[in-house]
Model the fold of this input.
Amino acid sequence: MAKQYETVIGLEVHVELATKTKIFCGCSTAFGGAPNTHTCPVCTGMPGSLPVLNKQVVEYALAVGLATNCEINQYCKFDRKNYFYPDNPQNYQISQLYLPICHDGKVEIETTAGKKYVGIHEIHMEEDAGKLVHDEWEDCSLVDYNRSGVPLIEIVSEPDMRSAEEVIAYLDKLRLIIQYLGASDCKLQEGSMRADVNLSVREVGAEKFGTRTEMKNINSFKAIARAIEGERARQIELLEMGKPVIQETRRWDDNKEYSYAMRSKEDAQDYRYFPDPDLVPVIISDEWIDRVKAVQPELRTEKLERYKKEFDIPDYDAEILTSSKHMADIFEAATAICKKPKKVSNWLMVETLRLLKEKGQDPEDIMFSPEHLAELVELTEEGTINSSVAKEVFEKIFEEDVDPAVYVEEHGLKTVNDEGALRSTIEEIVAANPQSVADYKGGKQKAIGFLVGQTMKAMKGKADPASVNKILKEILDA
Amino acid sequence: MANIISDETMEYVGILAKLELSEEEKTQAKKDMEIMLDYIDKLNELDTTGVEPMSHVFPVHNVFREDVVTNGDDSENMLKNAPAKKDGAFMVPKTVE
Amino acid sequence: MGLLDDTAVELGKKIKSGEVTVKEAVMACLDQIKKAESTIHAYVTIDREGALKKAEEVQKKIDEGKLTGPLAGVPVAIKDNMCIAGMRTTCSSKILDNFIPTYTAEAVKNLEEAGAVILGKTNMDEFAMGSTTETSAYGVTRNPWDPEHVPGGSSGGSCAAVAAGECFYALGSDTGGSIRQPSSFCGVTGIKPTYGTVSRYGLIAYGSSLDQIGPVGKDVTDCATILEVIASHDKKDSTSLDRTDCDFTSALVKDVKDMKIGIPRDYLGEGLDPEVKEAVLAAAKVLEEAGAVVEKFDLSLVDYAIPAYYTIAAAEASSNLERFDGVKYGYRAKEYEGLHNMYKKSRSEGFGPEVKRRIMLGSFVLSSGYYDAYYLKALRTKALIKQAFDKAFATYDVILGPAAPTTAPKLGESLGDPLKMYLGDIYTISCNLAGLPGMTVPCGIDSKGLPIGVQLLGDCFQEKKIIRAAYTYEQSRQEKIICPDMSEVLEKAVE
Done:
């Protein structure tokens, strides 16, 4: 019988923090911008420049550590990690090795197999690198330091995961915690959340871990699942052939679904870490920890429970709405205005999710304001517009965040409530469609649907369908 | 002489430090390093058990910046000294194979 | 010589009173530079136009009463490891040959705000690594007392420029004695302040935990005045201290009656030139006669300071100098194959031998498997050295000793044997490891006609004590040590 293998996975998750400025200088962290327009002597490694720590970075790192049940190193320091690469302007990255801010935490995850804990080895603060763009024309690379010095936390898990499903559940859990804390928007596609996968295999029942590899360059949940399957298969194949797995860093190529060794003669992987003499230690007092705990916002689990109690919406809706902090924020804000949680939830659960899916976007990408959604709910409830017009208006809100009242007014989409005008239109329709009238009178109830449709068409959709039905029946049944 | 530095070690340190020494320089550097390390070994005479390594002389801590944007677009100045540049970026030899 | 004999503070007074114009002062220096530079070579870059333009601006502000400080209008030279916007800054290295910063070092900014007129940038050992100013990529600087001899280093250009009257005062930097030792060799006064007193922002780092900027001047009054101007709490430097006791000129008082001065026996032993020893002990005698209690004591651990220092400084330097890679600024090799070869060639061609030696040593002591044995051991030794000083300063207000074991050696004598050169730093290095303030004051001239300096060390934040002791010594000693008559020196050099 073939040997059974178990996959052992640990993750190193990098999260870009939602600060306004970089970790060691007053440059903006805003996305976009022409190359090097968010740079200064500090984040381009000019001689004589010196780093000064952004306090908000410590606050966020601390909040994430507390929310993931970590111990806090109340005396923590920054170290230099030395390696030459053009995206790293000083040729050392300021990071934390010896005394990281948080350690020994855990989070609970839930998969089809049930609940379990994934341990967090440590969380440390560090700076992001710049961006390299490869210029085919000149056969060179171009360096942009706009991202250089953007604050990151690296969350290093214990090797506690055994499947892609667990890895995804863990990542999702981290994402929700961090988003709820407001510490990052955690967008995998944009790179504000990135995962390196440490993976080894061993025979089921073996006590010792196998040799692990580290895979980098994975930027979606799906790619992570594929990378795990691909690397597991590669390692098992090696073992089956009696060859050793080499401990190394590999780059996952999601198109080819294969990982490649990143080693070169020039990468010694000896980072010569030592305490950065330009920065002083961070001492985190008990009071500071208490203060961060006190302002800790409602996390996902608590919010979910509250939704189930407070709002008359299905449990399933509550699950989906709270699975994105951004969506939950919109739900609550819109509900607070229009007081119709069920209606607001419906717009989010049906139309919003449909449009997001169509555009390949995440709930984090929703850009409309809750005020406009609330207004749309009110317009529909008052009968100012009918449901098909509402759908049309919602698409505009979704895409351009239009003010629905203004939009309805400008495009003349209000439901026509002038009974005289409606009645004369219906009389014309009835006169023009004798066959349908005959069908109806002959007992085909369905034929009325056609007549309603014709009326709505003639009214350019602005009639209230209930009124149309009522008047039609009056005329036909007369 | 207690410390012997091998050619491989010199090669390795050269990779770490991104320095390429000529044969002559290498021989000299090896000799210098051996002499210095022998000299540094003098520290082993000292009993430092229980002594905390001291990186900072003064107990200064928690020096922070507030999270406020203070810098605008200074790309022109940042690129002023670049040996090679293109489209507002620093130009370097190709980084991928 | 006239005007050039004035100290910076004396000149400042004359400018303020209108007796001398700023332009006259600047011209006097520029003329002296013209005469002396071909022999002394104290400068890497001379900014004649800039200085003359600045002289006019400053004069205007003085006339309008907007600049009233003691240094307003006084011409200064800046060591070439401090960035000045728009002025070439090389660290005396080929790797920064074409580097023009777009920002100014905080210490220099403080001087500019006080009305200083910058004449140019002074020569130094490449990246401040050396004790003779011979490792500069732009040629050696010669000692104004005797051009056959070195000026010391690494702030050799700054000290030589002051001694030769090519400026009225200068800024230097001190990582292991780089202000105090060349001050001793050039017969000028220099202070290395307590670590964190002067901002390091804009100072191109050598050993970040050891580097401090300080003044080089003609006497104690000048140095106290300059230090008072450049000291500041800078939010851009995390290691900058918020001190409220920087009124250093208040310590210019001739009184040491309440002082206890200790002379480490460890500083008077083997290796110390007898003439230097005699001059230093004579200086101690002057202070004793002025009322101080002077005693000899055992400081201990002196022999361990050099190996600890070179481990820490080389380690930090190896990392600090990684940024010089031919990508963002500075020298890039002309020919290379690919990225890593570009790095290696640019750095190997751009750095001189002493810098490469220290980078190699520093990379090695930090590399995998050696970090604990070398780097952490050195940091533990540093802690013990600090403790030894704490103990000494519990008893003494000031520690007095030589600044260097000998007077200035001849050109070319030191470079052949690096270890011997490093041993020359024995009296100055501990002060940097412990973060202490220290200063050098001229105290004699040896039989070769070269100056000798006495070094005064104080406890952390006790600059005022060493300034008071130095001032008292300066005012009490019999003969004044004045800078050499340059016209004589230069005439001789031509022969």
About this structure: Residues 150 and 303 of chain A are 30 Å apart (CA to CA). The first strand of chain A starts at residue 5 and ends at 16.
